[in-house]
Design brief:
The protein has helices spanning 27-48, 52-72, 93-108, 121-144, 151-174; strands at residues 13-15, 21-23, 114-116, 180-182. By secondary structure, it is mainly α.
């Protein structure tokens, strides 16, 4: 087994999949790093959510995020080089997310106010994962401003954040905890 440390990044650079090195602050590294953080936050949500169905759905998302991270970590090939073989992007999951969102919405009813993040531990973890997902989406959008990014990645992350919001609501509902609604005070 190889060592976990290579020392090649000790000066603030990292290697990309398919070749090349960039600073660790590069928008590409920011993008796939945020997707990695999203995957970790979903792993934490799986650990604290008490609902088997929600955990199963979250577990199906984690491999998708690794595939997305691989695509984000792979720049266009340099002249004379081939793009490495990458896992398929999970574009087929987007309509599945939409079905899940619609199912949850039908069971919980429409929202009439903003929801404050929190409630049960599982719902709070899902709300945190949702905010990490939105940050990952922003980093991917920033990368797409300067380099090609498959549109399916942007759509996936956008829909995933919606799903995480609905799953947080569902986790609260199934835990017998109502959503905490934001009711702004007027002065």
């Amino acid at each position: 087994m190889s060592r976990i440390y290579t020392r090649t990044g000790d000066r603030g650079e990292t290697g990309l999949f398919g070749g090349g090195r960039v600073h660790k602050s590069h928008p590409r590294v920011e993008a796939y790093g945020e997707v990695d953080e999203l995957n970790a936050s979903i792993g934490w949500a799986i650990a604290v959510v008490d609902d088997d169905e929600i955990r199963e759905r979250l577990g199906s998302i984690q491999p998708d995020l690794l595939a997305i991270g691989a695509h984000l970590a792979t720049p266009p090939p340099a002249e004379g080089r081939r793009r490495p073989r990458l896992p398929d992007l999970p574009a087929g999951r987007i309509p599945e997310f939409e079905r899940w969102i619609d199912e949850i919405d039908e069971g919980l009813g429409a929202l009439r106010a903003f929801v404050l993040p929190g409630g049960s531990p599982g719902a709070a973890a899902l709300h945190l994962a949702r905010t990490v997902c939105r940050r990952a989406e922003r980093r991917v959008v920033a990368l797409a401003e300067t380099e090609p990014v498959d549109e399916a990645i942007l759509i996936y992350l956008n829909r995933l954040s919606d799903l995480l919001f609905q799953l947080a609501r569902l986790a609260n509902h199934r835990a017998g905890r109502p959503d905490v609604l934001w009711l702004p005070q007027s002065s």
